[in-house]
Amino acid sequence: MTTYETVIGLEVHAQLATRTKMFCGCRAAFGAEPNTQTCPVCQGMPGSLPVINRRAIEFGIMTALAIGCRVNAHNRFARKHYYYPDMPKNYQISQYEEPLAEHGHLVIDGGGGPRDIGIQRLHLEEDVGKLLHEGALETAQSSNVDFNRAGVPLMEIVSKPDLRSPDEAAAYLKSLRAILVYLRVCDGNMEEGSMRCDANISLRPVGQAEYGTKVEIKNMNSFRNVRDALDYEIRRQTRALETGERIVQETRLWDPDRAVTVSMRSKEFAHDYRYFPEPDLPPLDVQPAWIDEMRARLPELPGARRARFQADYALSAYEADILTQGRGLADYFEEAARGSGKPKAVANWVLNELLREVPADDDRAVAASPIPPAHLVGLLHLMDDGTISGKIAKDVFEKMFRSGETAEAIVRREGLTQVADEGALGAAVDSVLAAHPKVVDDYKAGKKAAMGFLVGQVMKSTQGKANPGVVNRLLMEKLPKV
Amino acid sequence: MGALTSLTAHELAARYRRGEATPTAAVTEYLARIAALDPQVRAFLTVTREDALRRAAEADARFRAGTPRGALDGVPIALKDVLCTRGIRSTCGSKILDGFVPPYDATVVARLFDAGAIMLGKLNMDEFAMGSSTEHSGYFTTRNPWDLARVPGGSSGGASAAVAADMAALTLGTDTGGSIRQPAAFSGVLGLKPTYGRVSRYGLIAFASSLDQIGPFAKDGEDAALMLQTIAGPDPMDSTSIGVPVPDYTAALRGGIEGLRLGVPAEYFIDGMDPEVERAVREAIVTLEKLGARTEPVSLPHTEYGLAAYYVIAPAEASSNLARYDGVKYGLRVPGARDLIDMYSKTRAAGFGTEVKRRVMLGTYALSAGYYDAYYGQAQKVRTLVRRDFQQAFERVDLIVAPTTPGVAFKMGEKEDPIQMYLNDIFTIPVNLAGLPGVSIPGGFTQAGLPIGLQLIGRAFDEALLLRAVHAYQQVTTWHTRKPPLTT
Amino acid sequence: MTSGARISLKDVEHVARLARLELSADEKERMRKELDGILSYIDKLRALDTAGVEPTSHAVPLTNVMRDDTEVASLPQDEMLANAPDRHGEMFRVPKIIEE
Ligand SMILES: [Mg+2]
Ligand SMILES: [Zn+2]
Questions:
Q1: Contacts of A69 (CB under 8 A, 6+ apart)
Q2: What is the predicted pLDDT for the residue at C3?
Q3: C87: nearest CA in chain A?
Q4: Taking a contact as any Cβ pair under 8 Å apart, which residues of chain C between 46 and 65 contact chain B?
Q5: Which residue has the higher pLDDT, A190 or B262?
Q6: Does ipTM surpass 0.90 in this model?
Q7: What global pTM score does this model have?
Q8: How far apart are CA B65 and CA B70, in angstroms?
């Protein structure tokens, strides 16, 4: 029986984080009342004309550089024609023969070690409006259009068919998303649709050079969906191939509820987009000086930062990977690490405590954390100078997160300082020894484990404030004398 | 003193300044003349009476206060209905935009209003500016004031007829393949197509984006200079408008044409053209020589290909620009459709006239898979050759002089065959393909008393020189002062 | 496309569909004849040797015309909806959508 190789290419549409739309000054923000963010331009009114948003082009160039694309010195917009009610002009201003950038690559790790995935092209275009069906699309008797989103800048990034598994597809999406978010050109929110992904997937017998018939899959609005949809499609196509039925080149929609892909039965009339150069927009001429200016704006990217974290701070690959998932978190970590001089400890606190409260890749949440890096540094100092124990520190962290106060303030107010004073502790030790003669005997009989119990009792009697080191020493001194 | 409606804009403005007339008096006279004559001429799709009287009263006050806004303050104008006017129906001559009320003013409209000009109404045109006679208007055909049985030319036929019939002091039209110059020639008025990019297209309902340009119809060169001065200059809303400095066109009128080098293109004097037109143009050339211009023959060898290239490029761009008229956002929607596609197809079938359908089909075909290179791609290359023709000619001459059209105004219904109709534009189209400025002025009349158009073509952004030549010619000729035999 | 008809009735139907134009039977036939006439006129373009000739898409060459990413007030909702042939609340209503 033949075994098949999976061939996947991804087409990602990322909504650019510009203030205004691609070709007009309307706000691009998401979530406003229907048709309150439109004007003659983005509603395609007769007589209106587009004007290019410079920041959108700059975001495109920055992204192109980050994924190793060649920026085309001469590139231009073109009109792509098809009729759909969410597209005001019934053509989309996009880029066709002369895209902004081409020939990039992205290193991913889908489990099988790092792999280089080719990127075919990166181009800019305008988004369409929102269609709200009265019921399901199939049954709706009418639909309604809100043009607020129409004209919002989109960046389309098309990979080569280099991905070989759903895991690789997910890994590709994850690292692409990380880059876009690092560059602050897209908020990367798949659920809200600011990052959308379509896939082309085909199967071919292992060893065969030419590709099999590809199927396009749409409507996968989360990483999980992408993996599930591709898994399902592999099963479906494998079954088809094995039962000798031919795969139809078509577009299929992922239905997350039924966990199946459904054919759109729409290709009986092949699209003919009739592209031609947009006559309302002069071409773009991207000179080296402009590219250099954009390159200078690039932050350190996730891959490089991960490597540096391992080298400079002696972190494990695992730690570095998580700490670099968001640019905000990575900045947080570095600030605290430098402030405290204890990167390893900071890494532990961030991984084990902070990330319980905030998502690693959510820059806004990290920035809004009630415990800024300086406060974490303060907490670590209190541990170092023995003011508080590690156990107390965990509680203090909790309180810091709830109140936003510094560790010092909380420890002072609640008198959580460790008792290191031998006099006070001596008394506590004596009473514990007196209260547990049996355990004392066991210890003397050689049961060293008994020591742990006694330390615990002393800690308990001091509500954990006792300095464990001192307690141990006192017990060692006193036990023989009992 | 004579009727205010018979004056040029600059004469009228002078009377305002001298306190011999008021904008309200002029607007009232114009509205009365429109009421009396337009039932015959049918130039207006919409008359904005109240709006005009309100603006006139405001202008009166400015003159009383001694603070007029400038040369066009209080001057009654009218606009081709291709231009968007805030709160006023703008149909582009099409049923598919019947009842469309734009929420914004075209840039040129805003500039004219800022200058104090007073709009009397919106003017008839061939639907979406596709035509040479206004017979393709979705509403009615405008008549030629010189012979009501004939067409005024097109597509800006309402705009040329309104000036010819003294129903507006100045009007604006648009020229994509001759739609200002050809009706100017047929109607016996001045029509100026500026350089592509000289005047903002924002608010001009697009026909062919890479060719469309807005320009004035006027009674003489001085008036054209005033209008161009007001509308010219770059606009941040139009990425194809260009920041070349705008000279003082009125000042540029003076100086004469002594020593000016005039090119006469052999290709613009063809077999089958109206002999009366050729004779008039040759005489006009002699007149220009008497004024000190030196003429020499030039060659524009790709002229015959211009028309063919135009009939690929313009329909292709039009098929795209007109895709938005689908019954969803504005304009006509045919009720009772089975589904969306059915609504689209029925609405567009009912809303567009035959000429528009023909060009939308032609353009869609030319752009469709497998034909792009053979048609659109090739036409864009031919366009380069046409541009080169002019560049080479302008290395030797300062202006090109030629007939505007091979013939004069034809009778309504006379040109049934599309290509016969298209051939009207053979001398005007190459200028659009090259993006150059061109003007048509009255250069004589036929025995039958029909106007003949004289066309002058200039270098890019050299409208000033065109206007100076026009002014010099009009100082020694009277064709532009003749009035059509209209009786109310 | 040497001799004979340059455009068939099937072509006309395909293009009419692309252009979302409903044409009656005789409209189609008339359209076919007229387009055929115009196309044969246009065919003179093919005679011309344009090897090595750059296409002109804009008569006046310009590049990098851009605006800053600064907000301009949108138009009021009621003004942007005022021309709608059919509405549902604050949205444009369209008939049943069936994929082609
Ligand atoms: Mg796209
Ligand atoms: Zn807008």
A1: A101, A102, A103, A104, A119, A121, A122
A2: 44
A3: A144
A4: 46, 48, 50, 53-60, 62, 65
A5: B262
A6: yes
A7: 0.91
A8: 14
